[in-house]
Design brief:
The protein is α/β, with parallel strands linked by helices. It has a single domain, classed as P-loop containing nucleotide triphosphate hydrolases (Rossmann fold, 3-Layer(aba) Sandwich), CATH 3.40.50.300. It is about 20% helix and about 25% strand. The chain has a seven-stranded mixed beta sheet with strand order 1-7-6-2-5-4-3, with helices on one face. A hairpin with a 5-residue loop joins strand 3 and strand 4.
Amino acid sequence: MTYTFETSSPGETIVLGREIGALLRGGECIAYRGDLGAGKTTMTRGIALGIGLDDDVTSPTFALVNEYRGGRLSLCHFDMYRITSSADLETTGFFDYMDDDTVLAVEWSENIEDALPPGTIIITLERTGDDTRKITIDGDERFALLRH
């Protein structure tokens, strides 16, 4: 099922992310699609808040993965921009993070498309202006509950 939303500020993107995070149960993989500056990390900040994490979520560009623990669920935020092969993916420990009390949020997921688990939630962020975004979620029926 596909759901589309529009936000007009980073704050609104965080609010939508928070609503998404509140719907997560653990064990999900979220694959982001979108250009540089589309709002992927901003969305992840909101998701972190929605699952009960107060950490300052930052882009994992140079670390490849940032881990956030201590909420209702844990969050592992990946940046796959520099990953170009399955061998490279293995070095990130990506598969070791998949468990029932963790959510994976994957930026540049296009680079590991063939390794994404079944049921991956796809979130596409498109810039429609300086601060406005069109956000499309391909996921199950629980996202019909989003009010944003």
